[in-house]
Sequence to fold (381 residues):
Amino acid sequence: MSALEELPIRPELRGKSPYGAPQLDVPVRLNTNENPYPPSAALIADLAASVSAAAAELNRYPDREALALRGKLAAYLSRTGGVQLSAEQVWAANGSNEVLQQILQAFGGPGRVALGFEPTYSMHSLISQGTSTTYVVAPREAESGFRIDPAVAVEAVAEHDPDVVFLCSPNNPTGTALEADVVEEVYAATAGVVVVDEAYAEFSHAPSLLRLLPGRPRLIVSRTMSKAFAFAGGRLGYLAADPAVVDALRLVRLPYHLSVMSQEAARAALRHADDTLASVDLVKAQRDRIVRELRARGLQVVDSDANFVLFGRFEEQADVWQALLDRGVLVRDVGLAGWLRVTAGTEEETSAFLRALDDAAPQQAAGDRAAAQRAEEAGKQ
Ligand SMILES: *Cc1c(COP(=O)(O)O)cnc(C)c1O
Fold:
């Protein structure tokens, strides 16, 4: 028996593995959907000066409500999300994973049910487990490009009567954007809270679902600064919802959960938002290039509205994953048979990925180029 198994740990945690995207020191890291561009020198200088000034009062607890930061996040969403929001409608925590955990602490828990549409973001089920919330699933089908069928969704809600419904748009790991009618129909069908995880909203052609918030007090849209904002190391996630939802989360959050440094750093990052978000177009161009190049190789590729691409289908995706890693390129095996996920990086990183794939899986990567070409020509006719 291992030392862990000998501890009086909660029974439902026995035999479980922690969330584990490998953190490996390889030249090309395309496995956790980060923005490949580092922060600008101006942002770094601003952040350092702000944190330094705030450090003069580090003997005091931070603003427990993080109101100044929430006001800036509300202004950003109002500017880009198609809806006017105030600080009272926004909540922030250390990454959107903490936001999701607080949602489950307030609305899930023992005896309660969360519903997700798989394949989707693995943390939705892991955080459910961690809060002793029963996690149930309804399917997304590969044949439909992993879209959620509104009828299937409404049926799943009727069957499971969930307290929390997780929707994800664009969905990780498939890149699929959600139609507004799925949210509207699920919301109307459930008495629970509906969480739309918009971690990749900035990369999507579809407008943000924030516009559905007015008149829906049980709807929550979660966001993060980890992806488009190039702030994964800063750990700042947030949500927009009715002020009553925020009041519910304030019942379960740890006091002073956002440090002075986190609040100052995030505000500095937001001051440079336009500059940082200019990289989104570069990343989208590489995403579209990956889709084109992989399809030209005869591979199956899911349409993506995010900064990553799901591609396959391989006999053994784990073998292709390892072969890419052997060539210095780390992509993600999300545990979906036959598929791998690659993050759109810089132009150089994308080229390195394509070269490694051609080298690693020449038959599969080349696929049947002729067949792919024939299919494309047939499509044109
Ligand atoms: C990356 C990701 C997050 C972000 O998590 P953080 O804790 O904010 O870094 C949230 N949801 C989805 C679907 C993601 O892919």
Remarks:
- The chain has a mean pLDDT of 94.
- Residues 279-296 form the longest helix (18 residues).
- The chain has two domains: 22-38+278-380, 41-271.
- The pocket of pyridoxal-5'-phosphate is lined by residues 33, 95-97, 121, 168, 172, 197, 199, 224, 226-227, 232, 237 (CB under 6 Å).
